[in-house]
Amino acid sequence: MMIALSSVAAALEGPRTMRRHPASLLVWGAFYWAALMLLWVLLYVAFGEEVRRDLAQTHFTADPKEVLDLVKHLGGAMALLILLAAAICAVLAGAILRSVLHPEQSRAAYLRLGADEVRLFVVALITWLAALFVTAIPSGLLTLLTATVAGAGASGLAGWIAFIGGLAVIGLSMWVGVRLSLLSPQTFAEGRINLREAWVLTHGHFWGLLGMFVLNLFMAVVLTPIVFWMFGGLLTGAIALIGGGSKLFVLLGLLANLLIAPLAFTVQTVILTAGPARAYRQLHPDI
Which one, of 160, 161, 133, 131, lies nearest residue 145 by Cα? Predict the structure, then answer.
């Protein structure tokens, strides 16, 4: 008998986690803020003034040649920053997964730096590679094909190719994304990376997991920014009441945004990470 999966219960695990561990949420936000500052410093040091100017003037498209040229231009510094970003995500994801799967291990706000985080780092790289091959590259090839057909004078056909091809890329991305969605919690819980088992684990639960992700994305992309915009507006109003001149108002406003943005990203990460962890627990009631 197949175990039932509750999309709503899984999707609401993020808010539940933040309600259960508010202090940990603040620590995670502080960790992400510190990591972000470190990345900015490394970005400034690793990239020269010319490269930073080129990045600021670059208009990104889905053209694979443009992406490859940019990576070639940036060299090893960009690869280092990508690896550091993956490492930061792995540590933060490890803390969130630990709070859901092993809530008793609460020391240091669930933050660790060990074998679990190393495996999650590898999982992050696998996920990015999967996104590259099922989303980025197909999108780039579709763009090239559409432009070629349109350039040959068949604009109507190019429109149909873009529409049907776009739906195919979206469908493929959703399918692969859902089938691999439990790889992180499975890797964390079992202490090993097994792509095949993670793929098989989602068999028969595609629509339930997709429903969970739709709710998670709605909370992360729509609700979370609204809440933080409201909070930022109240904070800005309080700063205005304090007074002190326009310069102080601008300075305090920038400081408030500097603190709010990392916390907002952390909240979104909790929502998108805790949901799959709860879904994994539903499929493994013995945990």
Answer: 161
Give this prediction's pTM.
0.83
pLDDT at 42: 75
What pLDDT was estimated at residue 183? Answer: 96
- How many percent of the chain have pLDDT more than 70? 76
Q: How far is CA 198 from CA 4, 7, 189, 209, 225, in A?
A: 17, 18, 12, 13, 32
Which stretches of the chain score pLDDT less than 50? 60-64
Nearest C-alpha neighbor of 279 from the set 191, 178, 129: 178
